[in-house]
């Protein structure tokens, strides 16, 4: 490879990619692909125009399957290199990739490689903002890829959105605001692929990440009806800790807003009770956070009244009270035990025979416990997302 670099072999291979002969293109693309497999040389190769040459083949869309495979494979390797990634999001490069993904007449291998390039870029914090702010509407086109009929493509698309949604607050806000149909598309995707753990894991992770985004008026930008979607996903995949964890975190974020709490009441006896009985400590922590938010002092009185009445009278909800008391007895004075104790005290302080009674506890008491352990960030969930 040193000789190729020294004697102009790279520039020659880039020129040969423009040749009309399929055999010549295939040979040149194969050479460039194998050269880009060396991480130590990628930045040097990029400076010689390799990225632009490979994109040129994708733009023309006339190459055979083997040539496209080598070119997109080389771009995928470059996209995973932090110093080169910014070159791959310039001009109309993202549009070219997403056009390839959406093109049903293109080779299946090419479409999968194209969306994997987008995923590799989405994992790079240095270019996440460039992706969501792309002037050619790359983010909106990426969301549209969720509605493709091929599961392999939908999985990687959902994973790309999940990684993008772990970005900064401005990035999350941009994702939520980029397309008014985002919420509907996420819900339809979850319904369509209700048996796919891979799809639902990334969809629920994306929703959970975006559910923490607030506007200037401190209102969640993502619709509260998403809470019902997360509950349905959690109920149908209670054997998947990965999905349960994402759904629990999303419900915890959504339940911060009083109006969303009302939407969670129908699921108290199903989703929440199952999560409280989970053998996974993180899932239980998220369920406790939901209960904590549903009973917090700053929440509207009618909601707390309804929560207490449901747990007291609804056979489906009664196990919640039992489980909370069991956690109090088992955990003692550790953080989980203290949170469970506080929730039990709040519920017991509400006289369910008299509407809108005083709670019996003050704000200082209700906010004295430390919930930092269950307010985990989106970054912690990256390890759960499936890798390409």
Description:
This protein has 388 residues and is mainly alpha-helical. It is elongated, with a radius of gyration of 25 Å. Helix 5 packs across helix 6, helix 14 packs parallel to helix 16 and helix 15 packs antiparallel against helix 16. The chain has 23 helices and no strands. This is Armadillo repeat-containing domain-containing protein. InterPro entries: ARM-like, ARM-type_fold, Vac8. One of its GO terms (biological process) is nucleus-vacuole junction assembly.
Secondary-structure map:
Blueprint: H1 2-6, H2 9-16, H3 22-36, H4 42-47, H5 50-60, H6 65-79, H7 93-102, H8 108-122, H9 125-132, H10 138-144, H11 151-164, H12 169-177, H13 182-192, H14 197-210, H15 226-236, H16 241-254, H17 258-264, H18 268-276, H19 281-295, H20 301-313, H21 318-331, H22 335-349, H23 363-366
InterPro entries: ARM-like, ARM-type_fold, Vac8
Region (Disordered): 354-388
Keywords: Repeat
Quick tags:
single chain; protein-membrane adaptor activity; ARM-type_fold; Armadillo repeat-containing domain-containing protein; 64% helix; repeat; mainly alpha
In short:
The protein has 388 residues and is mostly helical. It has a domain at 219-377.
Low-confidence stretches: 354-388
* Backbone structural class: mainly alpha
Q: Rough shape?
A: elongated
Tally of DSSP β-strands: 0
Biased composition (Polar residues): 354-375
InterPro entries: ARM-like (IPR011989), ARM-type_fold (IPR016024), Vac8 (IPR045156)
Keywords: Repeat
Family: Belongs to the beta-catenin family.
């Amino acid at each position: 490879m040193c000789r190729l670099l020294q004697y102009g072999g790279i520039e020659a291979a880039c020129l040969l990619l423009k040749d009309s002969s399929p055999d010549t293109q295939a040979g040149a693309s194969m050479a460039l692909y194998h050269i880009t497999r060396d991480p130590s040389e990628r930045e040097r190769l990029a400076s010689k125009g390799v990225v632009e040459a490979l994109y040129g083949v994708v733009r023309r869309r006339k190459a055979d399957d083997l040539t496209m495979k080598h070119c997109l494979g080389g771009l995928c390797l470059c996209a995973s290199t932090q110093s080169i990634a910014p070159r791959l999001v310039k001009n109309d490069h993202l549009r070219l990739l997403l056009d390839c993904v959406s093109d049903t007449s293109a080779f299946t291998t090419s479409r999968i490689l194209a969306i994997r390039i987008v995923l590799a870029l989405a994992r790079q914090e240095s270019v996440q903002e460039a992706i969501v702010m792309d002037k050619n509407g790359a983010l909106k086109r990426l969301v549209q890829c969720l509605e493709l009929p091929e599961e392999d493509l939908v999985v990687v698309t959902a994973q790309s959105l999940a990684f993008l949604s772990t970005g900064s607050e401005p990035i999350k806000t941009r994702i939520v605001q980029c397309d008014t149909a985002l919420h509907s598309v996420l819900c339809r995707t979850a319904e369509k692929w209700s048996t796919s753990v891979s799809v639902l894991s990334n969809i629920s992770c994306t929703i959970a990440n975006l559910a923490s985004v607030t506007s200037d008026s401190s209102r969640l930008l993502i619709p509260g009806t998403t809470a019902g979607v997360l509950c349905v996903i959690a109920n149908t995949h209670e054997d998947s800790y990965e999905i349960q964890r994402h759904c629990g975190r999303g419900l915890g974020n959504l339940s911060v807003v009083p109006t969303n709490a009302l939407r969670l009441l129908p699921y108290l006896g199903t989703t929440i009770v199952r999560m409280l009985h989970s053998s996974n400590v993180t899932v239980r922590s998220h369920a406790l956070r939901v209960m904590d938010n549903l009973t917090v002092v700053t929440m509207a009185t009618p909601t707390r009244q309804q929560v207490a009445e449901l747990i007291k009278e609804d056979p489906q909800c009664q196990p919640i009270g039992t489980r909370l008391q069991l956690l109090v007895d088992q955990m003692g004075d550790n953080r989980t035990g203290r949170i469970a104790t506080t929730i039990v005290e709040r519920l017991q302080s509400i006289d369910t025979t008299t509407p809108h009674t005083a709670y019996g506890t003050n704000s200082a008491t209700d906010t004295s416990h430390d919930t930092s352990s269950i307010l985990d960030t989106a970054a912690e969930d990256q390890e759960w997302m499936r890798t390409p």
